[in-house]
Amino acid sequence: MKNSYLIILILLIITNATNAQEKVNYLEESPADFKARMQWFDDAKYGMFVHFGLYSQLGGIYKGNDKGRYAEWIQGNQDIPSEEYAKLIDTWNPKDFNATKIVKLAKKAGMKYLVITTKHHEGFALWDSKYTDFDIANSPMKGRDLVKELADACRKEGLHFGTYYSITDWHHPAQEPGFNEKENKLAWGLTHMKDGRKEEYVTFMKNQIKELIENYDIEIIWFDADWAEWWTLEDGNDLYQYIRELKPNIIINNRVSKRDKFKKDFGTPEQFHLDNKVDYYWEACYTLNDSWGFKIKDKEWKTPEVVYEKLKDINGKGGNFLLNVGPDGDGNVPKESAKILIEVGKMLKRDK
User: Fold this and answer.
1) Which of 327, 344, 341 has the alpha carbon at shortest distance from 97?
2) Which of 44, 269, 311, 343 could form a disulfide with 112 if both were Cys (CB 3.0 to 4.6 A apart)?
3) What is the pLDDT of residue 17?
4) Rg (Cα) of the chain, in Å, rounded?
5) Helix or strand holding residue 99 (H, E)
6) pLDDT reported for residue 190
7) Number of separate helices (H) and strands (E) present in the chain
8) What are the Cα distances from residue 64, in Å, to 31, 60, 288, 321, 330?
9) Which residues of the chain fall short of a pLDDT of 70?
10) What number of other Cβ atoms are within 10 A of residue 297's Cβ?
């Protein structure tokens, strides 16, 4: 009997030692492994960003008020109370959303990957999440999974698929409006973490991110809202490690941590791009008009020529170009967006 216990003890020691040896620090990835993991992204050059959520049905106007540049920021721009804003879930019914049509548009435009806002700052989840009721399963769209529809369409058409996820969450009870010194008032744009609730929220985030990775086998996770004062460089390093342990070959943007200090896996200049080549991977994201989310009054469309020249300039300096479309409340890509993208696609075909 004693021998049996001894054998079990030895096996446990060996198992624990093996597990300890297998623990990989993904922040210290070798240059060769990093290059191999980033290869498809480096080759892709051009992708579609899709901003879509509860805000899409408003089109940048709430109770007659159109204050704010970006339509997806309407809750923050107009300081709409969380419980009031949350009622939008009852009227969100983008019945025309057609993942295949959107992905085929991206492909026709010459794009090689697509990233969708699965949870923007408003906190609404585009998938049926076990960790919140503020999701698609509790809207009139119950029964549909827009993330799966897009993931499946991308794989069918040969595009890489990724998801955007905001670190800030205006709906989660752990957060509340922070103090805006410039305007001398509390505002949603800068959230404050309630005392003693950060660990709860980080666990919530990790659970949702795990759902996205396991349910949709995503290739990129695109973070935002790293500006929150309660989110630290150490928090970002921990989340980066957690995600890579779940899926070692996934690609993560630098906003998982503090973007001014953290450049793995790629930098993310927004509405501008770099002047010269740099020694890290990067991707410039731009809007097609002025707003990311659908905005009825926004007619500031870039011409196909402007988009084409930006793409060529960005690619020539070693960057990728992630160009946004904002479907309307019914789920349709604005006709002007589609027209521009198709024309750019024709211009790219003529280059071949």
Assistant:
1) 327
2) 44
3) 44
4) 22
5) helix 99-108
6) 85
7) 10, 9
8) 53, 10, 25, 35, 20
9) 1-21
10) 12
Helix (H) or strand (E) holding 221: strand 220-224
Alpha helices in 191-279 (DSSP H): 198-216, 233-246
Whole-angstrom distance, CA of residue 253 vs CA of residue 240: 10
Give φ, ψ of 224 to 5 degrees.
-150, 170
Asked if residues 220 and 266 have their Cβ atoms less than 8 Å apart, the reply is no
The tokens describing 175, both together, are 């957060």
What one-letter code names the amino acid at 291?
Answer: S
CA distance 213 to 41: 18
Tens of pLDDT, residues 47-64: 999 999 999 999 999 999
Report how far residue 142's alpha carbon sits from residue 94's, in angstroms, rounded to the nearest whole number.
11
How many residues belong to the chain? 352
The pLDDT of residue 352: 79
Alpha helices in 109-196 (DSSP H): 146-157
Per-residue pLDDT reduced to its tens digit, 71-80: 999 999 999 9
* Cβ neighbours for 274, distance < 8 A, ≥ 6 positions apart: 282, 284, 317, 319
Q: Supply 178's token pair.
A: 């922070």
pLDDT digits (tens, 9 = 90+) for 6-42: 555 555 555 554 444 478 999 999 999 999 999 999 9
Q: 102, 150 in Cβ contact below 8 A?
A: yes
Instruction: Give the SS3 label for residue 214.
Output: helix
Q: Locate tokens 């080549």: which residue?
A: 277
- DSSP-assigned letter for residue 80: -
Please give the domain boundaries of the chain with CATH numbers for all domains: 31-351 (3.20.20.80)
Strand 251-252, strand 220-224: pairing: parallel
Q: Which helix (H) or strand (E) segment is 164 a member of? A: strand 160-166
CA distance 176 to 168: 10
The position carrying tokens 């923050």 is 76
pLDDT of residue 18: 43
DSSP string, 32-73: HHHHHHHHHHHHH-EEEEE--SGGGGTTT-BTTB--SS-GGG
186 neighbors 178 (Cβ within 8 angstroms): yes
Structural tokens at position 253: 């943007």
Write the CB contacts of 280 (distance below 8 Å, at least 6 apart in sequence): 263, 266, 267
What does the pLDDT look like over 140-179, one tens digit per residue? 999 999 999 999 999 999 999 999 999 999 999 999 999 8
